[in-house]
Amino acid sequence: MLNIFRETFEILAPVDGFIINIEDIPDRIFAEKIIGDGTAVRATSDIISAPLDGKIVEIFDSNHAFIIEGKTGIEVLVHIGLNTIELQGEGFERLANIGEEVRAGEPIIKIDREKIDKVEKDLIVPIVLANMDKVKSITHCEQKYVKSGQSVILTYKIK
Q1: Are 80 and 92 in contact (CB under 8 A)?
Q2: I need a surface site. Which of 9, 43, 78, 125 has the fewest CB within 10 A?
Q3: Is it true that domain 9-158 has CATH number 2.30.30.60?
Q4: Residue 140 catalytic?
Q5: To which H or E segment does residue 41 belong?
Q6: pTM, to two decimals
């Protein structure tokens, strides 16, 4: 039997970039952990990947955010940029679909950095554990720069 109550699980960086503490995100919804706890990456690459193995349960119509449910039942929200919903999908290309099983590091969304930069949207990518009621503990990484699909950005234990 899988003893998920004692194991520590990993969340990988969904994009290359520089780590930002969630409290330092210039968006109150994330900084005050209203959606959940997590971290963020200031993106330096253009492919946003799955941060863990699981099933894509939501990709927003504008392709600026998605949710993956991991094997432990944890739901991870990846939000690409700040205020990017205003772009109504411009600058985002969907590479995967709702309902697909994915492995950590598999591409989900491709961004058009030039389009997003033109409208001056910040490419901070919050990564949030959305159902914190299932989380016993969370640990943030100490790294400054992370690589998509390789660097561990968070570890957690479930209740």
Answers
A1: yes
A2: 9
A3: no
A4: no
A5: strand 37-43
A6: 0.93
User: For residue 55, which amino acid is it?
Assistant: K
Q: Is 112 exposed, middle or buried (0-12, 13-18, 19+ CB in 10 A)?
A: middle
Taking the CA atoms of 6, 67, 37 and 139 in sequence, report the sign of the dihedral they define.
positive
Average pLDDT over residues 103-115: 95
Distances, alpha carbon 113 to alpha carbons 41, 47, 98, in Å: 15, 10, 24
Whether 88 has a pLDDT exceeding 80, the answer reads: yes
| Domain ranges for the chain | 9-158
> Which one of the listed residues 19, 67, 72, 79 is annotated catalytic?
79
| Four-point Cα dihedral 98, 52, 117, 121, nearest 10 | 80
Mean pLDDT of 129-145: 94
